[in-house]
Amino acid sequence: MYIAEKLDVAIIGAGHAGIEAGLASAKLSAKTAIFTINLDSVGNCPCNPSIGGTAKGHLVKEIDALGGVMGQVADECCLQSRMLNVSKGAAVQSLRMQIDRAKYKNIMKHILEKQENLFLKQAEIVSIEKVTKENVGNEVRVFKDYNFKLTTRLGTVYLAKAVVIASGTYLNSKIFVGPKNYSSGPDGLFPASFLSESLKKLNINLLRFKTGTPARVLKSSVDFNELKEQKGDLIPQKFSTYKGKTKEVFNKASCYISWTNEKTKEIILKNIDKSPVFSGDITGTGPRYCPSIEDKIVRFKDKERHQLFIEPCGEDTEEMYLQGMSSGLPEEVQMQFYRSIKGLENVVLMRPAYAIEYDCADPIGLDETLEFKSVPFLFGAGQFNGSSGYEEAAAQGLVAGINAALKVQNKEKLTLGRSTSYIGTLIDDLVTKGVKEPYRMMTARSEYRIILRQDNVYERLSKIGYDLGLIKKDTYEQIIKDIKTKYEEIKRLKKSVVAPSKEVNEFLVSRETSKIFSGVTLAELLKRPQISYEDLKKIDNSCTLNDKNIEQQVETELKYEGYVKRQKDVIKELQRLENKKLPKNLNYMKIDGLRLEAREKLEKYKPSNVGMASRIAGVNPVDITALLVWLAKNKIN
């Protein structure tokens, strides 16, 4: 049998998950190939032309801290940078960046092409099979180290020790626009029409999900005088603090805001039977937190209007993206309701909105490394795992790619717990709770968000990236230097005392905070909500930090100090449960003291540790106590 290539790791898909998986695997010295149906779709952003957003910005920063590339490429393609939730606490503030989507694709593709140990291949993988004598013949002994046989649509065969499936929304995908539907991937690209059957033969449980993409419109047809302008931050921030070519980012474009109205609502309700979601043509489950405009109108009938954003797609294109207006209605109906909106009265559609339905895996079948429990060396990442969003995909791709490479090299796996990161929270939610709809990361999903902030991401995760070899030594040394500077300054502020004086008290009153009548430390002053590190510079000239990032970290650490301490105590208890490992072959049906529902759920999910078991729906604290007693009685852990 002719084998085109023998690989350590094969990645199926070159979207955001596939990119991070492939780069991580290759950087860990695994011979890696990324397969994509069309090389021009590498790094495509088929939906919104932006990276980050609420909680998603946390994921991008964490990807960067671990050695991924999404953040640094977003910086290079920045059109506008905005920090969201600035009126709220630091724990929920997230960076969002409008990007040039064409430039983003080009840069990502070039990064992949230049990466050592990585091969980028245009080919549709139509089947994944375990290597057996039946499918490789008498050469099975020669190929004993390779677990999978991959076949392309052209009949070319590849062998791989590990496989990461990162198929995005391409898997058996179908486009819907009103009553019209046809097999297609996003942006009019070919779908992956054959792989689903192959996965079913491997006993992978598949779900059917749906998402949608808004229309793109011609910039010159939009009346911007009728819209509210949304500019970027006065001091725009980067995603990648230490890596990448970009030293600074600049705001090159504005976004604009408009609202639907009663006329819009009337048009949509009049034609609601033509929506494939409401007609029954679409059977897949759509995202709760990113619904189509017809979903919004029906679900929130009493709401007078819905907000939409008109966003640029790039510097060298006249396409504008209508954020918040995805739809599966017919094109002529789209034209009607878009033109009912202020500023869009004469709008010209360049690409109509569409709904897309696709296959994905039930993530309950995965463990915390994103490896399928029932198929060793097979991993899933991104929307294939039932999530939504570029950022969620990239985060999973990074973890899956790392673990695939470590697995074939017989090295210790990487797992990220809920208390370490939003990435850990994302993966834990997927593999312990499963999904009934496309999963979207939100700050509210993390019970440890006071600790898992954007500003301390490098302190939390960069050692992992460095130890793996994904972060260069000089970069890591700079990170360590900055962390040391932060804590030295915090220590100094706690020791430095300010005496009451007329000048100090006048300044405090000007900041709408109370006077001092005895000596207080600079740290105590900084803990006041009205006082910033910049204010301390006006009170005490020994505050000489000139790095805004470190200043912000110092300020946040002190203001949150009490909350952080309490949360760390909670995490210690969590880690105690996480450290109690559970045998893979444990028969929960025979454990006395567990309720029947708990036995059934634990038997189905097969958690790897007691901490994960405690988060499974249907398993309560009494069950966990019974499980701990049984483990102790049987001297396990």
Keywords, please?
6-stranded antiparallel sheet; 22 strands; 7-stranded mixed sheet; 22 helices; 4 domains; 637 residues; FAD/NAD(P)-binding domain; Elongation Factor Tu (Ef-tu), domain 3; globular; alpha+beta; Arc Repressor Mutant, subunit A; single chain
Write a compact overview of the structure shown:
By secondary structure, this protein is α+β, with helices and mostly antiparallel strands.
List the helices and strands and how they pair.
Elements: E1 5-12, H1 16-27, E2 32-36, E3 50-52, H2 56-66, H3 70-76, E4 78-84, E5 94-99, H4 101-114, E6 118-122, E7 125-130, H5 133-136, E8 148-152, E9 157-165, E10 174-177, E11 180-183, H6 195-201, E12 206-213, E13 216-218, E14 228-230, E15 255-259, H7 262-270, H8 276-279, H9 293-299, E16 307-312, E17 319-323, H10 331-338, E18 349-351, E19 354-361, E20 378-380, H11 390-408, H12 422-433, H13 457-468, H14 473-495, E21 497-498, H15 502-510, E22 520-521, H16 522-526, H17 533-539, H18 548-559, H19 561-578, H20 596-605, H21 610-614, H22 621-633
Parallel strand pairs: 1-2, 1-9, 2-6, 9-20
Antiparallel strand pairs: 3-5, 4-5, 7-8, 8-9, 10-11, 10-19, 12-19, 13-17, 13-18, 14-15, 15-16, 16-17, 21-22
